Amino acid sequence: MTVPVTADLEGGYADTPQGVADTVRAALSLGAAGLNLEDATGQPDRPLLPADGQVDRLRAARAAADALGVPAYLNARTDTYLSGYGDTDADRLDETVRRGRAYLQAGADSVFVPGLTDPPTLRTLRDRLGGPLAVMYAPGGPDAHILLRAGASRVSTGPSLFLAALGHAATLSAQFRERGTLDTPGALPFGTVQGWFSRSPA
Amino acid sequence: MTVPVTADLEGGYADTPQGVADTVRAALSLGAAGLNLEDATGQPDRPLLPADGQVDRLRAARAAADALGVPAYLNARTDTYLSGYGDTDADRLDETVRRGRAYLQAGADSVFVPGLTDPPTLRTLRDRLGGPLAVMYAPGGPDAHILLRAGASRVSTGPSLFLAALGHAATLSAQFRERGTLDTPGALPFGTVQGWFSRSPA
């Protein structure tokens, strides 16, 4: 079974558009069918890249994919909500619209806005963007069906599945240390997983 | 928090002792505190490397660690049990003893015999080896306390935790597709996990 894999390239692991293009080429050469590229810097005092700089990086990413002949799905993430941009909700929404439209024009297939799950805001944003909007489900927040009905075209789970899987392993490890046994009724069979990573079809 | 990590280098990802030494150097340079090296070939018609060839590879691994000044824990795995070596139980045990003693003499810190969890056989093997014996817990088999009392000095869980974690993620994914929600009460906090992989102490 072959499934398309999208790669979260975060900020592209590079400072320049050329560097981002190199990262994109590397990911697509390894078989990635889609890419995330975000405008977060990781620096608390200046959390977002300038919008025009990010536009240049997205253009370089799209050009790199085109040059390889790969119709890569380019999911352009903006961290306006995660970073708490602006002084008011309106500022934040306006900046998200501004960035999102620019990113779509630069070749993004969707604008990803993690940290936004409020359905009315989502609906407004979707209408003002004029293009596909991706959001991240938050455990305890509105469910995926609600997010889709509010206008999201893509709902992802962020780190939730990974954190749940790690938590499960941690719980089992603690039990193993105490009891000397592992109770793993939901474990996947070894052969199934080995098959995923074998060269020949399993 | 710093925890020692041992690397499962399988067959050393190389055909020659020099190649195995290169792999060992790479793993230790990345910070591994211990290593697994196994005598399995992955070829069904000839599942085990010749014992003397594996001895050369273990010697090369130990020498590589010594040259780096790293007191690496070298866990020498033999797949006599996993591969179903020999025509009788006695053949299998004899070959395990022969290989295990040679591996210890080549510089191994323990002999790892996955596929063996029968306490009486374990006790006999431990006595005949004259050195530390590592075993793999099998879900549903004798518990770790029994294995330790029977003479094992190390009990690992093989792929069980990983397969359980993957199974948990698969179950949650299916629920998410159906219900649109993720129920992850045992998930680890994002900050905890992010801290593990950050350069500065979290």
Please give a structural write-up.
2 copies of one chain form a homodimer. Chain A is an alpha/beta fold and 202 residues long. Chain A folds into 2 domains: 6-158, TIM Barrel (Alpha-Beta Barrel), CATH 3.20.20.60; 159-202, no CATH class. Chain A has helices at 17-29, 51-68, 89-105, 119-129, 144-149, 160-179, 190-196; strands spanning 6-8, 34-38, 73-77, 110-112, 133-136, 154-156. In chain A, strands 1-2-3-4-5-6 form a 6-stranded parallel β-sheet. In chain A, strand 1, helix 1 and strand 2 (34-38) form a beta-alpha-beta unit. The N and C termini of chain A lie close together (9 Å). The model of chain A has no long low-confidence stretch (mean pLDDT 95). The A-B interface holds A 137, 139, 143-147, 157, 159-173, 176, 179-184, 186-190, 193 and B 137, 139, 143-147, 157, 159-173, 176, 179-184, 186-190, 193.
